[in-house]
From TrEMBL:
The gene is Lrrc41. It comes from the Eukaryota. Residues 252-262 have a biased composition (Low complexity). Residues 236-251, 325-336 have a biased composition (Polar residues). It comes from Vireo altiloquus. Residues 186-269, 314-342 are annotated as: Disordered. GO terms for cellular component: cytoplasm; nucleus. This is Leucine-rich repeat-containing protein 41.
Length: 714
């Protein structure tokens, strides 16, 4: 029962010799230390020989700490992937396969083929035969298209057939085990079918029942059938499985949802000859006993195998003799992905990846792409993967320069949503420029994905260079929104007017909405906010959390008080809303009295509203003896609060608690970015006394950086 947290905290200081970031939020120092220790040793940041406790030839730092690693980041030239797939780290990789949940790639650079081969082995073990459920990539200004699509495709559970996934010349042992089990299961199924057919044939008439006919068919077609994989993520695949979101062109029909794709190769013949890639020597991809002729073809597959058929991940057009021109489709209806100019464009490299030649493995449930420019062809590749990525639950696309290519991504998600086993629930899209008005994009998304639970759309600026909507794209504002499962809606407007009339259809279709966040919107007229409140009351009976950020509410005091009176809301946020810019002392008193009478409000967040000392002290009256408030959390960050004001607030709060017999619901106070460094001694006393009353979260912020705010609040 004795906590070891102080010991791990001291170990951090002794071994890491750095101050941990966000140390206030660390809940388990043991986990934090061991994960950071593993990463630093792997990337050569920490010299083990520098500490006498670690400098032991019988001690393997990677092996010792690997069972405790749930998150791993690979950087730059992927040196960590090479190290982890080295023969002497075999046990380390096995430990990671069981413990790792989040795999991140950061600041990647182009790398040579041996490094890529190591990456393939690593992804295959950690994702396809491991426990990784989230893949995140960030800060890749000039991405290597082939490497990017490789990571995406393997995260989606796809890789080529044959024995490409091998370790020092030997095929993957786990794949061999799966294959043996599948063959054994298939044989048992065939024998059961034959037995059932024999037992039923004695009393059958000539026609027979459909069930017996199926048993006879199983007996006749006793070849091995692909059983479901042990991992549920592999147990289903779309009847619209790629390519082109509808069917696999040039090959057999894809299996139905009742016949999952396994991770075992299916032999397919092709009549097309391989054509050499332009500007490079043609390599033979002739197969012999299941092996590729050249061992270097492990990764060369990414360049050339897709030429065998029409189903490469990156679009291409053919007009050779005897072949039809190939069009990429974007929905299960088979319509081309031509909603925007970015989707219509075709061409590029000659097929990055062939889903037709690929095998299906376990896939991740969360994909995050931060600050990685996505070209039109990369978006088409991602769209094609998304169309059958049935295990995917969360997708985050942040600052990818999508522009018109957002429609291509939506087409893949639309195809995915039509799959009966679709688990997709959360979509977050943020970018510098908006290709279309925010509300129009929200309507597009909800029309395509009614099963979404969380939708976040965020843009910094309007796209002035491309302000007009492409003519070939019908306006999403005219699309009817089906009833949705939406629970969380977050919209960050690029300084666009908030027109309630455009938001109304979304709210009407979202009866389950529990949380709404509106950021950086402008109110075109004083009546707009009043209309919004009426719509929220009418259309969203389950709304619990409402947030306004950077919305000027200085002239909307009446509406602010109405929101604070709402008995259905449990959390209200007015962040940087200039609440007290032109207000009187009476307005603050009305806010306090309204909150005192509201027993349903649990959290009130008022960051960035220039409360100052005197308004903070007044807020302590929310917890006076005559109050019926149930307020638990109060956020007064970035409010020009000084140490003497905080101390006075603390004393007043102590007085109210004493009057109420020591019982108040207040438990959390947030104080980020206030001027507490101006008098360290007074601030420490105030914080010490506050922490005896509630949980306080603050930071060591340099208030000298806030000189402009100081001048404006004088």
């Amino acid at each position: 029962g004795v906590s070891t947290q102080p010991i791990w905290r001291k170990l951090w200081d002794d071994v890491m010799k750095t101050r941990p970031p966000n140390s206030e939020s660390i809940t388990c120092w043991r986990k934090k230390f061991l994960e950071t220790f593993f990463s630093n040793v792997l990337h050569g940041v920490l010299d083990v020989s520098s500490d006498w406790r670690l400098n032991d030839r019988h001690f393997s730092p990677l092996l010792h700490s690997s069972p405790h690693v749930s998150q791993l980041t690979l950087c730059n030239m992927l040196q960590g992937a090479v190290e982890l797939t080295a023969e002497h780290n075999h046990r380390v990789l096995e430990n990671l396969a069981g413990s790792l949940r989040i795999l991140k790639f950061q600041h990647l650079l182009s790398c040579d083929q041996p490094v890529r081969r190591s990456l393939v082995l690593l992804l295959h073990r950690l994702i396809h035969h491991g426990s990784v459920s989230q893949v995140s990539m960030c800060s890749w200004p000039v991405p290597d298209t082939v490497l990017l699509v490789l990571i995406l495709s393997m995260s989606a559970g796809f890789w080529r057939s044959g024995n490409a996934l091998c370790y020092r010349g030997s095929p993957c042992g786990l794949c061999r085990e799966d294959k043996a089990q599948s063959q054994e299961s298939a044989q048992e199924g065939a024998e059961r079918g034959c037995k059932a057919e024999r037992e039923g044939s004695s009393g059958d008439n000539q026609k027979g029942s459909p069930e017996k006919a199926e048993a006879r068919m199983n007996c006749v077609l006793s070849g091995p059938r692909s059983p479901p994989l042990r991992n549920p993520a592999c147990e289903v695949t779309s009847s619209e499985v790629p390519c082109d979101h509808t069917s696999i062109q040039g090959g057999s029909s894809p299996p139905s949802s009742s016949e999952p794709l396994s991770c075992h190769p299916v032999t397919r013949k092709t009549r097309r000859r391989l054509k050499p890639a332009v500007g490079r020597k043609r390599r033979c991809l002739r197969r012999s006993r299941g092996h590729y002729a050249d061992p270097e073809d492990l990764y060369d597959f990414v360049f050339t195998v897709a030429r065998e058929d029409n189903s490469g991940l990156l679009g291409k057009t053919r007009n050779t003799e005897g072949e039809n021109t190939e069009n990429w489709t974007s929905s299960s209806s088979g319509s081309p992905c031509t909603g925007h100019a970015g989707c219509k464009k075709r061409g590029g490299p000659a097929g990055i990846f062939s889903l037709k030649a690929a095998r299906r493995f376990r896939s991740v449930s969360t994909l995050e792409l931060f600050s990685i420019p996505l070209t039109g062809e990369t978006c088409r590749a991602l769209s094609n993967l998304l169309s059958s990525w049935v295990s995917l639950e969360n997708l985050v696309l942040s600052y990818n320069g999508l522009h018109a290519n957002i429609s291509c991504i939506l087409s893949g998600l639309r195809a995915l949503s039509r799959h009966p086993e679709c688990r997709f629930r959360e979509l977050r899209v943020s970018d510098m420029f908006s290709h279309m008005p925010c509300m129009e994009l929200v309507r597009c998304v909800l029309s395509a994905l009614p099963q979404l639970h969380t939708l976040s759309v965020s843009f910094d600026l309007k796209n002035h260079l491309d302000g007009s909507r492409p003519e070939e794209n019908p306006s999403c504002s005219e699309a009817e929104i089906p009833e949705s499962c939406l629970e969380v809606l977050e919209i960050r407007f690029p300084r666009e007017p908030l027109h309630t009339a455009f938001l109304l259809p979304v709210l009407k279709a979202s009866k389950s909405l529990q949380q709404l966040s509106l950021d950086s919107a402008t109110l075109p007229c004083p009546q707009e906010l009043t209309l919004l409140l009426e719509v929220l009351k009418e259309c969203t009976p389950n709304l619990k959390k409402l947030s306004f950020h950077d919305v000027n509410l200085a002239e909307h005091q009446k509406e602010v008080l109405l929101l604070l009176q709402d008995p259905g809301l449990q959390e209200i946020t007015f962040s940087f809303c200039r609440l007290f810019e032109s207000s009187t002392a009476e307005f603050l008193s009305e806010i306090i009295n309204t909150v005192k009478r509201n027993s349903s409000l649990k959290s009130l967040k008022l960051p960035g509203n220039r409360l100052g000392n005197h308004r903070l002290v007044a807020l302590a009256d929310i917890f006076s003896e005559d109050s019926s408030s149930s307020l638990c959390q109060l956020d007064v960050s970035s409010n020009c609060i000084k140490p003497d004001g905080l101390l006075e607030f603390t004393k007043k709060l102590e007085s109210h608690i004493q009057q109420r017999g020591g019982q108040i619901p207040f438990t959390h106070l947030r104080l980020f970015q206030n001027w507490l460094d101006q008098d360290a001694e007074t601030a420490q006393e105030a914080l010490r006394r506050l922490k005896a009353l509630c949980s306080v979260v603050n930071d060591s912020w340099d208030s000298s950086q806030a000189f402009a705010d100081y001048i404006s609040v004088m």
